[in-house]
């Protein structure tokens, strides 16, 4: 995976004139609220199931707890490094487990390469070189990789002490932004790219404060900013190290970071689904996979993937809708984001994705608005929300109980823990 595109263009879109013609970004035309300021619109008809575009992130990083828990991913593209069988053994706790059809695993350990200085792992020499060329030289700890007193190690430890699983972001995403600018010959080019992401800590017109940047987290932010400055300060980016600039950078990552999940086991399962088998063979294989997932759930729970987040310039232009017509996925088992149509999209129609998960989308309008207001600094007025405007601004009894329980926990823990970004 070369790095030419990182120097030439903000994103890698499918190399197809059809795809380039289908999608166009408009600034200042977001129709959900006057403050959203951007949107993505179809220029030609897009059919349900079509891939609208494929994009690589400007920067990405694996979550720190995820890495600590031995979810092995490429330091550049987040491709899962464990073979499907090794992954299944670790997640199920069955050390002698053997997967049928091992040839379907697409992980190639013989291609993996380590940084010669710090020994972090990459899925290929291309990824190792791409990381070195973009940001890794500025972040490489060399022989200090295991030194807990190294400034970057202290920064990572502080983040882990404030941001517990389930993780939603990483301080290292911000670190790689700084390192990218540090290493770049054209520093202004990268600063301009990063400036295109929404980075306000609050939405001035609606006076919505980002929940992470309120008074409760000032102490944690001060600690992080001090450690961040010690580890990474650069004169070209001095504004990012001021209290206001760091808060803005924190908000940029918190509101624009897209989660990335990769799994060699999931990729193997999808490959099994595509096999041409007899009915008896299919039944046997499906039974094996069902039992495997039961064993994994019992041993590991819900944490199955290598997880991280990235900043995707084109995807970040997609506004939210509670009834989205597009969705992002990572079928290549790396950081390449595929945006696919969930329904037919007409020329001129806005391409909308959901910032909420499936369960959150099914909650009341009031609850959806609270989540979006707290995390993304806007109030949604998509067709679904408009149609529910006459509903009382109350959550369901179940949601109220959840909020009450959450409030009790907050009183005890919120001063010491930062659990959402």
TrEMBL record:
Its main location: cytoplasm. GO terms for biological process: methylation; negative regulation of gene expression, epigenetic; regulation of cell differentiation. The keyword Zinc applies. Residues 392-421 are annotated as: Disordered. InterPro entries: SET_dom (IPR001214), SET_dom_sf (IPR046341), SMYD5_SET (IPR044422). One of its GO terms (molecular function) is zinc ion binding. One of its GO terms (cellular component) is cytoplasm. It is found in: Cytoplasm. Residues 16-356 form the SET domain. Its EC number is 2.1.1.359, 2.1.1.372. Keywords: Cytoplasm, Metal-binding, Methyltransferase, S-adenosyl-L-methionine, Transferase, Zinc, Zinc-finger. PANTHER family: HISTONE-LYSINE N-TRIMETHYLTRANSFERASE SMYD5, SET AND MYND DOMAIN-CONTAINING PROTEIN 5. This is Protein-lysine N-trimethyltransferase SMYD5. The gene is LOC110537870.
């Amino acid at each position: 995976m070369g790095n030419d595109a990182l120097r030439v263009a903000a994103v890698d879109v499918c190399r197809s004139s059809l795809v380039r013609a289908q999608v166009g970004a408009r600034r200042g035309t977001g129709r959900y609220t006057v403050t959203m300021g951007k949107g993505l619109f179809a220029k030609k008809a897009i059919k349900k199931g079509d891939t609208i575009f494929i994009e690589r992130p400007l920067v990405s990083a694996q979550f720190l707890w995820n890495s600590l828990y031995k979810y092995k991913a490429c330091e550049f593209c987040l491709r899962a490094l464990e073979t499907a069988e090794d992954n299944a053994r670790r997640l199920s706790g069955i050390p002698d487990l053997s997967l049928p059809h091992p040839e379907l695993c697409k992980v190639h350990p013989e291609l993996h390469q380590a940084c010669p200085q710090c020994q972090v792992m990459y899925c290929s020499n291309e990824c190792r070189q791409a990381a070195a060329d973009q940001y890794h030289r500025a972040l490489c700890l060399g022989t200090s990789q295991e030194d807990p007193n190294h400034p970057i190690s202290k920064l990572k430890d502080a983040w882990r002490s404030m941001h517990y699983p389930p993780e939603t972001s990483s301080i290292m995403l911000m670190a790689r932004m700084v390192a990218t600018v540090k290493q770049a010959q054209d520093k202004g080019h990268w600063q301009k790219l990063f400036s295109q992401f929404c980075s306000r800590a609050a939405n001035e017109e609606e006076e919505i404060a980002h929940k992470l940047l309120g008074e409760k987290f000032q102490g944690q932010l001060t600690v992080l900013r001090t450690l961040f400055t010690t580890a990474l300060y650069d004169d070209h980016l001095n504004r990012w190290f001021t209290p206001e600039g760091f808060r803005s950078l924190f908000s940029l990552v918190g509101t624009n970071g897209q989660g990335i999940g990769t799994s060699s086991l999931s990729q193997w399962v999808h490959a099994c689904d595509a096999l041409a088998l007899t009915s008896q063979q299919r039944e046997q294989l499906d039974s094996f996979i069902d039992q495997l997932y039961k064993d994994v759930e019992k041993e590991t729970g819900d944490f199955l993937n290598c997880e991280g987040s990235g900043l995707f310039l084109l995807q970040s232009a997609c506004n939210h809708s509670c009834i989205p017509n597009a969705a992002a996925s990572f079928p290549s088992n790396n950081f390449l984001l595929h945006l696919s149509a969930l329904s037919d999209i007409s020329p001129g129609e806005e391409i909308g994705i959901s910032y909420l998960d499936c369960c959150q989308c099914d909650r009341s309008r009031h609850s959806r608005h609270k989540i979006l207001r707290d995390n993304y600094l806007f109030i949604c007025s998509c067709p679904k929300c408009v149609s529910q405007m006459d509903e009382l601004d109350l959550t369901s009894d179940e949601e109220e109980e959840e909020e009450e329980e959450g409030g009790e926990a907050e009183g005890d823990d919120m001063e010491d823990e930062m659990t959402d970004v």
